């Protein structure tokens, strides 16, 4: 026999969540008893049976101090001693298996497991029915997390006539045996990560059995507690199947049936509530447009018990100890304002369990790990409320409390299972059932439909309330797109409710109910979940489409909780405030809230939060030059300080006001500051404010600078990291103010002198040290990102030694072995190379180019993508320098380096799309930059040809549209270089063929627009090549104009007008360059498609470019001047004798201008334009 292995954890490393009694000092009794049992031989005598009985009793009652190494062998020996015709001994040995496996947490090896499974299955088949309960308990302990090792026994257990299928059937006369059989099935379905799952079709067989169990009503011979345990086991079985990933709920009927039983179980035993549901919930069709009448939710729900009198919420003391707070969380009822809403009947309920949601007992408080199905439904660590589940004061009250405890566990199990269901289906499928689980504002006089908020507001167990909130949070997470259709309307005269209005109503009701729950809640753990749920709701709601006041109510309600005694509540409160200032920023409503006086809304206190002794507690500022510097950067008209910024600064830098409470997790011994999670959250809120409401944050620029210096000077890398993130957001905000398209008035911007002071303080502080902290590469990378957010105008005014410091550190870090650091450095260099004060420095540009080329060879895709982006920026700099009057840069820039850059860009253009899109941009710029002196050299000829072939290949390849757009743009850049032999080189026709192919057939209209733009760039007729090439381009553009509305993608229609505008501009440009040999083919096209072309040219003349920055002329005069120029050019061509093409084209243009001027009411004559 294989030796037993005793383990503290499961094979996959999953710790068993089982309470264990402390072992006594002596353990020799177990060894002695084991030795005696192993010495016995099978004997059917009465004395032998008596001895075995006694040995089994002693082994079961033994306290195990030290565990023998052969426990499973001992169990095998025990089974061999017990023949299956001895019912009493079989029952006893089953108890021994169950007891030892649970108590000692033994992992049974496969050989012994095989024997023990065969024995227990045979025992169920052969022994009397009264033994089945004990045998099933033993079987449940054996199969726990061993489902994959039981494959050969699955037909006996789960087959058509399998013993578990028979015993779990609703017709089973013994309710305890039925419950135990379902428990065995649930343990079979429990999988361990890294091990195989149950083979098909057994997962589905189990699922259907669990579903049938949940759908079946309680039989008359089953007591309430057994029924609760049966439901728990079925729920945990389904949850195990879902968590194992084998169950894919793709069928609407299957998912609807599961959700129906989950909803029913969610409210199991909830006082004052009894609902009836259909066996299947069907999804509401989600309309793709606004105005579809909604399906009325919960038509089959009926509230059979609705007390008429509203129960009162007991007043709770504010300053309670943590234990008292949890027990007081067991509330009798929560009143809901409004007519027709259910309220719970009075009577408080003691807390149901001392165990967490992660592992709920099945067999009772004495059951150990094998009687549990461990689930990943994690929540806060719930504190114990009573010393034991069986610790009840008297018989009657005790039974009632025990009953409510088991009912609460059913509700918690249903919610845990629902959470696993949410994770295993697509969100778009889940939102079809939105109205079944999320409340909607009830119509006047109608009762509120039951939902997750019913549990949050009414369930007496704080643990169940927290579970319901976790499920609601999971539903809300990632719901932004679904909720984005919501829109408030004041039009109540419609015959139906549009879908958008229904969603808006649901969002309002969620706000109302969660704020009610916030006020009523006394359990700190549940309070934390409420606030987190609110944060999820705020992050996903489209407040820009909703009526005002929703955020104001949340804002005012949450303010007092930022001083709650529990650190988790304080942290989640800051998270919620961060969500408010980051959602759809900047919102006018939030702007007003941030400008409220500091004391506004802080007098509100409730039973869960201590009253704030001083309304201006956050105004305490650290000593230092904060306030003196802040006044320098204050915009005009800002007098009232932002209380939220003051709060966050105080949280980060001020010592805490009182000693750290026992609930302050993360509060290091001897730390003088707030716990780390509080400080990190405060820094995140400051970063959100800097990003969305910079006008508020800029008042505190220098003060925030000192906060950042303090954070980056601390030992905690996470504090340093968040300080660097805040610095990056502030730097980005300053850059946005100085962008050419900025709407900020110059006198409202932070003066450049103050920005220089700010960055000087950063560079003289701990920032350089953080950049060189190779032990924390994430911090280095974030500091690089922050350093790249320096305002260019301020960088040029920094002391020269600080400028050199920045450049030297970045160039040095580019050699880092860490990919995060290297990627951030490459990006930062790509930003610096665009700075006006650096871009004409040939040495810096060359050093940067060499650094970027080295990064382009890195193994990391992210590093190569950042390097390619920077190479694109560097080549943009080359073009800018080429356009300056001073030619010194072009002359001094190394031709050898240009060759290296071209080779690297060609190589990168064959990389992944993330690299390729910028590589082709760089190629186009480099080919545009090449001077005649470069092109004349033989070593450049081959690389130019290869570069252009790379661009043509990218234009034609079915790559990402961004890549093809950049490739078309790059080809247009190549056409701008007059030194290249465009028109005579062999690659000319290939380039034009690629562009004409795209302009006529590409699915993406923005790519078509860019290719049409490139076709209109050559400025001389000879650059278009032969007459055949010219005509091919002309015909392709006419065809593209015909097909400018041919698309199956609705999103592309908005670019139709821009595409037509660009094609018309290209056609007119071609006409203005046409030669005599081109005219016959042009006339031929106009004869067949002249009306169509003329109508689009007239549209072009009247409206111009729309929706895309293509460079098309915008003014009316510029547009008609283009046609006049083309007409003048055609009239000046010396046509061949007898050729009527010239006259036909001139007539076409003159007619077009005449129609245009007539329609616009212009009196301008066309006389003199032509000589008829």
From TrEMBL:
Taxonomic superkingdom: Eukaryota
Sequence ranges of Basic residues compositional bias: 307-317
Domain DUF4042 stretches: 409-590
Annotated keywords: Phosphoprotein, Repeat
InterPro entries in UniProt: ARM-like, ARM-type_fold, DUF4042, HEAT6
UniProt-annotated stretches for the region Disordered: 1-28, 288-374
Ranges of Polar residues composition bias in the record: 297-306
Pfam families (alphabetical): DUF4042
Protein name: HEAT repeat-containing protein 6
Protein's organism: Panthera tigris altaica (Siberian tiger)
UniProt gene name: HEATR6
């Amino acid at each position: 026999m294989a030796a037993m292995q005793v383990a503290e954890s499961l094979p996959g490393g999953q710790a068993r969540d089982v309470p264990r009694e402390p072992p006594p000092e002596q353990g020799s009794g177990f060894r002695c008893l084991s030795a005696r049992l192993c010495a016995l031989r099978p004997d059917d005598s009465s004395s032998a049976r008596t001895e075995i009985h006694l040995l089994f009793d002693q082994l079961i009652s033994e306290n195990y101090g030290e565990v023998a190494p052969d426990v499973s062998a001992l169990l095998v020996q025990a089974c061999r001693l017990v023949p299956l015709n001895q019912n009493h001994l079989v029952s006893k040995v089953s108890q021994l298996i169950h007891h030892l496996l649970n108590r000692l947490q033994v992992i049974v090896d496969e050989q012994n497991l095989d024997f023990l499974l065969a024995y227990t299955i045979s025992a169920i088949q052969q022994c009397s029915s009264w033994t089945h309960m004990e045998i099933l308990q033993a079987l449940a302990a054996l199969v726990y997390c061993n489902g994959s090792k039981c494959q050969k026994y699955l037909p006996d257990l789960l087959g058509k006539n399998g013993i578990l299928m028979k015993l779990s059937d609703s017709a089973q006369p013994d309710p305890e045996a039925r419950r135990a059989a379902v428990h065995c099935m649930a343990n079979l379905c429990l999988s361990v990560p890294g091990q195989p799952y149950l083979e098909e079709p057994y997962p589905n067989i189990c699922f259907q059995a669990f579903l049938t169990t949940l759908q079946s009503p309680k039989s008359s011979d089953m007591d309430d507690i057994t029924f609760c345990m049966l439901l728990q086991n079925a729920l945990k079985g389904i949850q195990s199947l879902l968590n194992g990933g084998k169950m894919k709920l793709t069928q609407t009927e299957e998912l609807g049936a599961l959700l129906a039983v989950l909803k029913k179980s969610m409210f199991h035993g909830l006082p004052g509530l009894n609902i009836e549901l259909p066996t299947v919930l069907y999804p509401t069709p989600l309309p793709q447009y606004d105005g579809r009448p909604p399906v009325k939710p919960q038509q089959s729900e009926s509230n059979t018990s609705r007390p008429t009198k509203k129960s009162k919420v007991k007043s709770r003391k504010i300053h309670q100890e943590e234990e008292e707070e949890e027990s007081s969380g067991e509330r009798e009822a929560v009143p809901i304002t409004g007519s027709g809403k259910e309220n719970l009947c009075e009577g408080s309920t003691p807390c149901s369990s001392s165990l967490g949601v992660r592992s709920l007992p099945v067999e009772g408080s004495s059951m150990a790990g094998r009687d549990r199905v461990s689930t990943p439904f994690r929540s806060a660590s719930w504190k114990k409320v009573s010393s034991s589940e069986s610790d009840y004061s008297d018989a009657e009250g005790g039974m009632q409390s025990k009953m409510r405890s088991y009912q609460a566990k059913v509700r918690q199990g249903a919610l845990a299972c629902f959470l696993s269901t949410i994770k295993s289906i697509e969100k778009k499928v889940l939102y079809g059932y939105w109205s079944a689980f999320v409340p909607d504002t009830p119509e006047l006089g109608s009762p509120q439909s039951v939902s997750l908020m019913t549990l949050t507001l009414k369930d007496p167990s704080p643990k169940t309330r927290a579970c319901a909130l976790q499920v609601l949070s999971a539903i809300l997470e990632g719901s932004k797109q679904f909720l984005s259709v919501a829109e408030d309307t004041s039009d109540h005269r419609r015959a139906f409710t549009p879908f958008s209005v229904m969603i808006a109503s649901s969002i309002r009701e969620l706000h109302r109910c969660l704020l009610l729950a916030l006020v009523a809640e006394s359990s700190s753990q549940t309070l934390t979940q409420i606030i987190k749920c609110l944060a999820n709701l705020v992050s996903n709601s489209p407040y820009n489409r909703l009526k005002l006041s929703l955020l104001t109510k949340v804002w005012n309600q949450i303010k007092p909780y930022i001083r709650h005694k529990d650190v988790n509540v304080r942290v989640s409160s800051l998270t919620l405030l961060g969500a408010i200032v980051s959602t759809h920023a900047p919102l006018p409503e939030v702007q007003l809230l941030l400008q409220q006086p500091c004391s506004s809304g802080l007098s509100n206190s409730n039973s869960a939060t201590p009253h704030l002794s001083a309304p201006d507690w956050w105004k305490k500022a650290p000593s230092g030059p904060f306030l003196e510097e802040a006044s320098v950067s204050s915009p005009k008209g800002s007098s009232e300080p932002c209380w939220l910024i003051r709060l966050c600064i105080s949280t980060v830098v001020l010592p805490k006001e009182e000693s750290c409470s026992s609930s302050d997790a993360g509060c290091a011994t001897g730390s003088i500051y707030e716990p780390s999670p509080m400080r990190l959250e405060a820094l995140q809120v400051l970063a959100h404010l800097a990003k969305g409401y910079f006008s508020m944050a800029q008042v505190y620029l220098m003060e925030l600078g000192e906060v950042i210096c303090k954070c980056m000077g601390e030992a905690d890398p996470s504090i340093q990291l968040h300080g660097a993130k805040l610095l990056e957001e502030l730097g980005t905000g300053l850059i946005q103010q100085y962008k050419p398209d900025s709407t900020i008035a110059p006198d409202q911007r932070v003066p450049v002198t103050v920005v220089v002071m700010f960055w000087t303080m950063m560079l003289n502080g701990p920032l350089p040290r953080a950049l060189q902290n190779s032990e924390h590469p994430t911090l280095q990378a974030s500091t690089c990102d922050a350093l790249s957010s320096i305002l260019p105008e301020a960088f040029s005014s920094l002391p020269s030694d600080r400028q050199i410091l920045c450049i030297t550190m970045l160039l040095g870090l580019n050699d880092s072995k860490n990919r995060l650091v290297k990627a951030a450095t490459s990006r930062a260099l790509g930003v610096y190379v665009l700075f006006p004060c650096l871009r004409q420095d040939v040495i810096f540009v060359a050093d940067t180019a060499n650094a970027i080329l080295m990064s382009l060879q890195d193994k990391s895709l992210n590093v190569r993508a950042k390097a390619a982006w920077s190479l694109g920026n560097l080549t943009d700099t080359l073009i800018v320098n080429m356009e300056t009057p001073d030619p010194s840069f072009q002359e001094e820039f190394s031709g050898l380096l240009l060759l290296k850059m071209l080779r690297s860009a060609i190589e990168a253009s064959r990389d992944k799309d993330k690299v390729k899109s910028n590589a082709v941009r760089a190629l186009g710029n480099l080919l545009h930059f090449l001077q005649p002196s470069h092109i004349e050299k033989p070593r450049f000829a081959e690389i130019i040809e290869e570069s252009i072939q790379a661009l043509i290949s990218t234009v034609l390849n079915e790559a990402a549209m961004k890549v093809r757009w950049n490739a078309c743009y790059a080809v247009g850049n190549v056409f701008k270089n007059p030194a290249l032999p465009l028109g005579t080189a062999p690659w000319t026709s290939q380039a034009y063929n690629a562009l004409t192919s795209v302009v006529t057939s590409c699915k993406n209209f923005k790519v078509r627009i860019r290719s049409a733009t490139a076709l209109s760039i050559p400025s001389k007729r000879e650059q278009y090549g032969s007459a055949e090439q010219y005509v091919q381009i002309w015909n392709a553009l006419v065809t593209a104009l015909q097909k400018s509305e041919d698309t199956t993608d609705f999103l592309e229609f908005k670019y139709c007008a821009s595409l037509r505008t660009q094609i018309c501009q290209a056609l007119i440009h071609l006409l203005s360059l046409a030669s005599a040999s081109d005219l016959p083919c042009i006339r031929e096209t106009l004869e067949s498609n002249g009306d169509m072309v003329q109508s689009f040219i007239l549209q072009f003349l009247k409206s111009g470019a729309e929706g895309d920055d293509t460079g098309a002329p915008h003014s009316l005069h510029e547009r008609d001047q283009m046609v006049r120029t083309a007409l003048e050019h055609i009239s000046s061509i010396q046509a061949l004798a007898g050729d009527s093409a010239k006259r036909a084209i001139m007539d076409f243009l003159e007619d077009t201008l005449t129609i245009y001027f007539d329609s616009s009411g212009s009196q301008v004559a066309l006389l003199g334009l032509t000589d008829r």
